[in-house]
Amino acid sequence: MKANIPEVKNKRIVVVGGGFAGLTICLKLLHTNYQIVLLDKHNYHMFQPLFYQVATAGLEPSAISFPYRKVFQSLNNIHIRKTVVEKIDPDQNRVITSIGEIDYDYLILATGATTNFFGNNELQKLTHPMKSVSEALGLRNTILQTFENILISEYPDEQEGMMNFVVVGGGPTGVETSGSLAEMKKYILPKDYPEIDFNRMNIYLVEASPRLLNGMTTKSGEKAYEYLMRMGVKVWLNTAVSDYNGNIVSLSNGMKLKTDNIIWAAGVKANFMEGISTATMTRGNRMKVDQYNKVEGYSNIYALGDLAYMETDKYPNGHPQVAQVAIQSARNVAKNFSSLEKGKPQKPFKYKNLGSMATVGRNLAVVDLPFVHFHGFFAWWVWMFVHLMSILGIKNKVMTFINWSWSYFTYDQSLRLIIKAKNVEKRIIK
Description:
Elements: E1 12-16, H1 20-29, E2 35-40, E3 44-46, H2 51-55, E4 65-67, H3 68-71, E5 78-82, E6 85-89, E7 94-97, E8 100-103, E9 106-109, E10 113-115, H4 121-126, H5 133-152, H6 156-163, E11 164-168, H7 172-192, E12 202-206, H8 218-230, E13 234-236, E14 241-244, E15 248-251, E16 256-258, E17 261-264, E18 268-270, E19 287-288, E20 301-303, E21 308-309, H9 323-342, E22 356-361, E23 364-369, E24 372-375, H10 377-390, H11 394-410
Helix pairs in contact: 1-9, 5-6
């Protein structure tokens, strides 16, 4: 196989990863004289903040996904290839992929982050992460299949494990998933499964630190805790998972809990690329970059978003791994490429914190803006508006709004489908 990228006189910029950073820089470079090549293992962009809603049957996967080729239709200076990047060869200015080798003049690494299991292979095998659409859809299948299995289970002990859901990690994903499960327990599942006593269903949120939402203000963490407890979620702070065998989870506080369902939202680590010097690697597998997002030791390789580690006076431990950092750094690097074309000086990246937010449930959310904090009903509407406007595609925005409106007014969801892929055996014709 060959990548079949046409050779042109213009400089080539290869972008690896089409998340918030990768997609943004491609869009900003479209009207330059560079040839752009976007490489991703998927053929679509994913809106990660709403994965948990796919997992809890609030949204269909297509509502938060958008095909790259639809974004860049009828544009000739960008070439998209669905492939896995296996290695970088900086000495030859070359990317080694599953479809062949691709040369570059400049390389943008925007590979994002994956779930961090902190070296525990058993947890990786037995728990459910949520860092892709397929993982979110797989978790939805598991949640719904669990209650189908409860209906036909003959043993109370077996049912106990199926009725306990443990969410590990008290960041936005863990808080939002716990709240969504609590709302399913209250409004949805009893109507679907009237034979099941949902007073037996327990939702646990386990967080190793002293509070929830560590990336937000203390007030937001406290309100999230208050909301979740009000919704019936059992929140355990200062508690970590020490072991799990598929049936029993052991916690650092000495407790043991029977559960078949652990959702892992406890941390992330960057997708470090093979071929880049490990001397650039720092905490969380991130790459050290200078103030222009150039990877240390390389003159034509850049890292963006969750992958980049840039120390500043305000952020001595690197910028937070959030969408706005990825988007803003991508915009700055794109401007610098335009300046490079015109022989103008480049500008260092300066992150402007626009705030952060998290939703807990119906009419319940917390919002931290640079100069004000608010929570409750108004915060919930702000959260919905910001996320709705951030989704790619008019159709996706409309479908998401319809799904949210339907759920709000009917206390119901219509996406509780167990969908599993069927593998078709391919015949080799000689």
